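Homework help board

Subject: predicted structure for assignment chain

Our instructor gave us this sequence and asked us to write out the predicted structure in token form, then describe one feature. I got the tokens but I'm not sure how to describe them. Can anyone check?
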Amino acid sequence: MWLPADTALWTTCHIVFDTVNGHVPQHRIDTLFPLTDGEVAVTAGNLFVDSFHAAGDGSYNRSSTFVWGTGAFGLALAAGTLAASAAGNASRRNQAAADAQEAWRSLFGGTLFVTTGGFYIHTRQGLFRWRWEAVDLMQVVAFNVVIMQARSTEGPVTWRLTSEWAELVFALWALHRHPNHPQLRDGTWPPTNWLPWATEQGYRPHLDRPQLAP
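My token output:
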């Protein structure tokens, strides 16, 4: 079944084909924000960003709540309070230990705009531009998912980008910054067997592996 994500990847192939052959991509979109001189916006879509970091340092607030009581009812109440306090402390301790582990954690969502000069991320907090030069590493790790390491105004970041345009971000970045990237060089950045499958569906992607060789 041909899905919108396949249409995005098919469009990505055409944009990459134009770029490899030295042409400004024919596929373009308008934006509500200004672009730099000579910059062309080509696509836009949903984006989800995860960050690889620890959510805490392993510390937690230990509760020592205790209720005094006398008689059978009072003793039972005291025992129950101790048990609840211990269970709460154990839960907080386990959560603190989990938070201290570095892992992929949801950071924010927004809209991704891909241009010939980089990409923009629009969220409720504002519009943020990433130039290709600010991204030092990128890898396609799954369909519509890339990992990048880059230099932000607040320091280095390790992000996981999930978007139907993730492969386009990777391909344009690699063409500008790292033409010898192994995934670009051997043509493994699209999903395995997707190109022949798309052709069988009647969509012939204008993409040829030899044309991507440095």
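Reply (TA_rk): Your tokens look well-formed. For the description, you could write something like this. The chain has two domains: 4-54+103-212, 56-101. That's the kind of observation they're looking for.
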